């Protein structure tokens, strides 16, 4: 019913000639550069966590094209609602690497977007961000702007009530929001076939009479151009779209789990060999004669320098303020929060005696 759209096949062949004019050398090279930066960052973050320099971390390796391609389709005044796994998207839209590192170090500064950028803090309670995004989009519509919102969520999130409430409300009120699903086919250890009977996630759009798009999430061209179309529709007042980007996470759910306990990791390695989003773009670029090893080396070096500098800045921060743990939960703290805060200070006094 919903065919998976591809613009670029696994061998780097362009399947959609309508976009060839837009694929200038500088655009394609900038996509590749972004993919290299976020993958290098992701790998480094895992190693920092292993060294005890980050608290925990949720890797996205394998999902880079889905995140970079979609976030790149946004305009500067749009909204972005991420989950805990969407750092490649938030980096693409303007978050600094340092901010992401601060977040995973448990710092409140890790939730603050750059001046003027509407990036929400990562949502950890699954699917809660969908109604938020619908609300923000609706507010833009009421104000009469042409701004839209994009909201990221996983396959598991589509089994939550908030997913359905977000879509229903957006559909009824024609909110300018793009529901961007990354179907990495696992919700922690639960494979998609054990979680839902629906064949696709895109088909869930039918229930709300909104357009549904199923695409190859490892094909950065399909992701970028299809997301742009959906955002344009939203801006024109035609309402929301549900996009399902079919992808795979190559690694663990977070640094706290071991994927070999619930799936055969050989499958991930096989998928990497055939569907890796970066190799696919690289093949296309080689076919076009716009990729060579010296250039690749130079962008890897640039990415590494940027990452090392962000780590230095993150590690130079003064110790966090304990109050931050409690003070940002409610505008007016409840008695339970006050009690927990007092108890924690009492605990710290005991530790420091
Ligand atoms: C409301 C809620 N229930 C359960 C959890 C625990 N939990 C954290 S991640 C996760 C899986 C989510 O899977 P998916 O939506 O596919 O996103 P992915 O992690 O694959 O990116 C669950 C169940 C949670 N964070 N929030
Ligand atoms: Mg998932």
TrEMBL record:
A Gene Ontology biological process term: branched-chain amino acid catabolic process
Source organism, top-level taxon: Bacteria
Dehydrogenase E1 component domain ranges (all copies): 36-322
Positions of the UniProt region annotated as Disordered: 256-275
SUPFAM superfamilies: Thiamin diphosphate-binding fold (THDP-binding)
Stored CDD domains: TPP_E1_PDC_ADC_BCADC
Function, as annotated: The pyruvate dehydrogenase complex catalyzes the overall conversion of pyruvate to acetyl-CoA and CO(2). It contains multiple copies of three enzymatic components: pyruvate dehydrogenase (E1), dihydrolipoamide acetyltransferase (E2) and lipoamide dehydrogenase (E3).
Quaternary structure and partners: Heterodimer of an alpha and a beta chain.
Protein name: Pyruvate dehydrogenase E1 component subunit alpha
Enzyme Commission code(s) on record: 1.2.4.1
Organism from which the protein derives: Heyndrickxia oleronia
């Amino acid at each position: 019913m919903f065919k998976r759209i591809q613009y670029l096949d696994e061998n780097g062949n362009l399947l959609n000639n309508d976009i060839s004019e837009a694929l200038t050398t500088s655009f394609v090279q900038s996509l590749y550069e972004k993919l290299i930066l976020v993958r290098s960052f992701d790998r480094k973050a895992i190693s920092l966590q292993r060294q005890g320099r980050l608290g925990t971390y949720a890797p996205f390796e394998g999902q880079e094209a889905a995140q970079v391609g979609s976030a790149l389709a946004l305009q500067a005044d749009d909204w972005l609602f991420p989950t805990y796994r969407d750092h490649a998207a938030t980096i693409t839209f303007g978050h600094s690497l340092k901010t992401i590192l601060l977040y995973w170090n448990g710092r409140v500064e890790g939730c603050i977007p750059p001046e003027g950028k509407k990036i929400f803090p990562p949502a950890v309670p699954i699917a809660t961000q969908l109604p938020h995004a619908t609300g923000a989009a609706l507010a833009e519509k009421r104000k009469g702007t042409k701004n839209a919102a994009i909201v990221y969520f996983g396959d598991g999130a589509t089994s939550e009530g908030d997913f359905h409430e977000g879509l229903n409300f957006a559909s009824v009120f024609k909110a300018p929001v793009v529901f961007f699903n990354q179907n990495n086919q696992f919700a922690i250890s639960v494979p998609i076939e054990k979680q839902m009977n629906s064949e696709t996630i895109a088909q869930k759009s039918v229930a709300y009479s909104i357009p549904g798009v199923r695409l190859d999430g490892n094909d950065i061209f399909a992701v970028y151009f299809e997301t742009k179309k959906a955002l344009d529709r939203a801006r024109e007042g035609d309402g929301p779209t549900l996009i399902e980007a079919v992808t795979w996470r190559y690694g663990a759910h977070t640094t706290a789990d071991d994927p070999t306990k619930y799936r055969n990791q050989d499958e991930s390695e096989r998928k990497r060999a055939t569907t890796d989003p970066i190799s696919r773009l690289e093949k296309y670029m080689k076919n076009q004669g716009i990729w060579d090893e010296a250039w690749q080396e130079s962008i890897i070096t640039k990415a590494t320098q940027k990452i090392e500098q962000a780590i230095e800045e993150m590690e130079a921060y003064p110790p966090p303020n304990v109050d931050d743990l409690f003070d940002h939960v409610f505008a007016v703290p409840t008695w339970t929060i006050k009690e927990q805060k007092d108890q924690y200070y009492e605990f710290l006094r005991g530790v420091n005696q």
